[in-house]
């Protein structure tokens, strides 16, 4: 039986959402400082106003419940579910004021894309966007890629409700037993990865002839986007802008690292390298990528743009890794992607985005662990059917030790798999209903729901408003892996439904 939300519940939920809005207000100071440093006075004023507005809204929401208590599971569900859209609504305000968006809805689309680490964008004239606005776009990527709950818990906020919040964000991986320590370790790993690769990318930018300040910013931004498997870039030509093979090779490594379970980083740090190498999901990941590369290269070789071996290795491999990690980087501009990539290659890229990489990583999509669990469950069922009745077949997998696959795991994996596939199909059907090519409609729907970010050309400022709203919903639902969002919607519906009077009263 569904439990209703009470007015007291909404007060508690509002308080914790207010904490998150205040965090966003603090982070917005970063693009404000960037604007001041580079003497971008209009953006400086815009972000100062946005900070003030966020402080007012966040403080008002916190006052809804002056003495917050520890969140229960149902309240945590609402906080996490609403957080992604509430923060996106706040984050869109300074973006809309930049003049690079046709409407507030367009700015909201990019804000949702930023926080959910999707990377799809409908911004106009990106090449002339201010440093401050770009800094805010990548700040959203950093917060969203880590996870809003991870950010809050790693800073010591909401620690009393850590377990409920952590699981409500679609996370089941505990790198260490304590949730707060887990989030702090995730944050440290991310900062180290972004920091190391930022230095490498800055060097490449300097070698390419960029002025120092611009090189530093581009290096940091691309490193954030790469490890968070996010996809925003500071230039309209995406990664193709840099014309750098060393940078592309570096980003391929970074995207793959972003798709690895954080628990494996922690295990490797503790010297458990053999356990890491035997990890079922990691082995599945490399086999999956190998299969995608083989099929993808064959599909791309049929197109004139990828006729030569160097082009296949450079562009083709990069695109496949970007799609599989759900990063959304591209060495082909969005307006040319549909022209140079054939139907077969489109479906390979869509399949790569749909699956994603590792659970417990910044990657989106269904996740390979779930697919591996489903595959092993099917195999165990077949084996059980062929075995004598006295024999009980047990299916296992390795993840920091040997683990047994139980019915609850299979049920969870099948549920999320079915919900992802259903959302992919719904988005594709709506796209077709609006007159778009079926291949493009499937591709863009998968890209939005998997937080993959690539587009076959539908995602633009000219797309129909209902489709734009649907894509926003897909990005939101995909980031929450559907279960949290659908459970939240059901609970709100039940809470708003009038109670039936008991007979006799």
Describe the structure.
Strands 1-2 form a two-stranded antiparallel ribbon. The chain is 66% helix and 1% strand. With 505 residues, it is an all-alpha fold. Helix 1 packs antiparallel against helix 3 (41-62), helix 9 (179-207) packs across helix 10 (212-227) and helix 15 (309-324) runs parallel beside helix 17 (343-355). The protein has 22 helices and 2 strands.
Topology (elements, then pairings):
Elements: H1 7-27, H2 29-37, H3 41-62, H4 73-96, H5 104-115, H6 131-146, H7 148-154, H8 162-168, H9 179-207, H10 212-227, H11 245-258, H12 262-269, H13 273-277, H14 280-300, H15 309-324, H16 334-340, H17 343-355, H18 368-386, E1 396-398, E2 402-404, H19 407-433, H20 438-449, H21 465-479, H22 483-496
Antiparallel strand pairs: 1-2
Helix pairs in contact: 1-3, 1-4, 2-3, 2-6, 4-5, 4-6, 4-22, 5-6, 5-21, 6-7, 6-10, 7-9, 9-10, 9-11, 10-11, 11-15, 14-15, 14-17, 15-17, 17-20, 18-19, 19-20, 19-21
């Amino acid at each position: 039986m569904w439990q209703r939300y009470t007015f007291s519940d909404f007060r508690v939920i509002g308080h914790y959402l207010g904490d998150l809005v205040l965090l966003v207000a603090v982070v917005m100071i970063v693009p404000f400082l960037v604007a001041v440093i580079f003497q971008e006075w209009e953006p400086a004023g815009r972000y100062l106003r946005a900070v003030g507005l966020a402080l007012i809204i966040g403080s008002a929401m916190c006052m809804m419940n002056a003495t917050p208590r520890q969140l229960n599971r149902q309240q945590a569900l609402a906080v996490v579910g609403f957080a992604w859209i509430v923060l996106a609504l706040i984050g869109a305000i300074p973006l809309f004021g930049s003049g690079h968006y046709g409407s507030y809805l367009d700015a909201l689309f990019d804000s949702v894309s930023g926080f959910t680490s999707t990377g799809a964008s409908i911004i106009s004239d990106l090449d002339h966007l201010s440093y401050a606005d770009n800094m805010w776009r990548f700040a959203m990527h950093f917060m969203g890629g880590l996870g809003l709950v991870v950010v809050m818990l790693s800073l010591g906020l909401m620690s009393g409700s850590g377990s409920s919040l952590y699981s409500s964000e679609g996370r089941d991986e505990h790198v260490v037993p304590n949730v707060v320590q887990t989030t702090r370790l995730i944050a440290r790993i991310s900062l180290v990865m972004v920091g190391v690769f930022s230095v490498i990318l800055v060097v490449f930018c300097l070698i390419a002839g960029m002025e120092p300040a611009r090189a530093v910013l581009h290096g940091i931004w691309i490193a954030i986007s790469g490890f968070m498997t996010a996809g925003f870039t500071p230039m309209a030509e995406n990664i193709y802008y840099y014309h750098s093979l060393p940078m592309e090779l570096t980003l391929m490594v970074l995207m793959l690292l972003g798709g690895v379970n954080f628990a494996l980083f922690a295990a490797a740090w503790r010297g458990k390298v053999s356990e890491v190498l035997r990890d079922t999901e990691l082995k599945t990941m490399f086999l999956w990528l190998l299969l995608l590369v083989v099929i993808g290269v064959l599909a791309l070789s049929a197109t004139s743009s990828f006729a030569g071996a160097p082009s296949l290795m450079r562009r083709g491999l990069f695109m496949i890794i970007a799609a599989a990690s759900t990063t959304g980087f591209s060495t082909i501009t969005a307006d040319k992607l549909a022209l140079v990539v054939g139907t077969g290659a489109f479906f390979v890229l869509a399949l790569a985005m749909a699956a994603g990489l590792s659970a417990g990583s910044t990657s989106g999509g269904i996740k390979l662990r779930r697919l591996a669990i489903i595959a092993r469950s099917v195999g165990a069922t077949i084996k059980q059917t062929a075995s004598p009745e006295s024999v009980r077949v047990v299916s296992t997998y390795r993840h920091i030790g040997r683990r047994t696959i139980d019915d609850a795991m299979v049920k969870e994996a099948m549920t999320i798999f079915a919900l992802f596939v259903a959302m992919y199909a719904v988005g594709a059907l709506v796209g077709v209903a609006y007159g778009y090519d079926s291949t493009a409609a499937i591709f863009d729907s998968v890209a939005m729901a998997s937080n993959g970010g690539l587009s076959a050309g539908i995602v633009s400022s000219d797309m129909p408003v209902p489709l734009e709203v649907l894509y926003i919903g897909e990005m939101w639902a995909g980031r929450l892996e559907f279960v949290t969002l659908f459970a939240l919607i059901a609970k709100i519906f039940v809470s708003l439904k009038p109670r039936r009077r008991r007979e006799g009263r």
